[in-house]
Automatic annotation (TrEMBL):
Top-rank lineage group of the source organism: Bacteria
Protein source organism: Geoanaerobacter pelophilus
Name used for this protein in its record: Alkylphosphonate utilization protein
Transmembrane segments annotated in the record for this chain: none
Entries under NCBIfam families matching the protein: phnA
Domain Protein YjdM N-terminal: 3-32
Gene3D superfamilies (UniProt xref): 2.20.25.10, SH3 Domains (2.30.30.40)
Lineage of the species this protein comes from: Bacteria, Pseudomonadati, Thermodesulfobacteriota, Desulfuromonadia, Geobacterales
Family the entry assigns: Belongs to the YjdM family.
Domain Protein YjdM C-terminal: 45-112
């Protein structure tokens, strides 16, 4: 079973192939297959050692991280479970025990 990408316009799961394009039946958005394939490879996030990270992975912090606007510090070796990959400069969204929700840069973590 092949998995087709979700619609970039409305995030619908019901896309289908039509020639060299993907089509969304809900919002009528069409986009080329090559653009979808290149977008999937661009969104790959890697840790400090080059391992690919995915949603739900666990990571370990490799450097003390000071939290802006607070006196708290995320210490080396802190394990963060169930991460979520997001777009932007800080590309990992997570919850850290004792600190709460925050975003991390993938360059300061390693896959656990």
């Amino acid at each position: 079973m092949s998995t087709l990408p979700k619609c970039p316009g409305c995030s619908s799961e019901y896309t289908y192939e039509d020639g060299d394009n993907y089509v969304c039946p809900e919002c009528a958005h069409e986009w080329p297959m090559q653009a979808a394939e290149s977008a999937e490879t661009e969104n790959s996030v890697v840790d400090a050692f080059g391992n690919e990270l995915k949603d739900g992975d666990s990571v370990t912090v490799i450097k003390d991280l000071k939290i802006k606007g607070s006196s708290l510090v995320v210490k080396v070796g802190t394990k963060v479970r169930n991460i979520r990959i997001v777009s932007g400069d800080h590309d990992i969204d997570c919850k850290i025990d004792g600190i709460g929700a925050m975003q991390l840069k993938s360059g300061f973590v390693k896959k656990a």
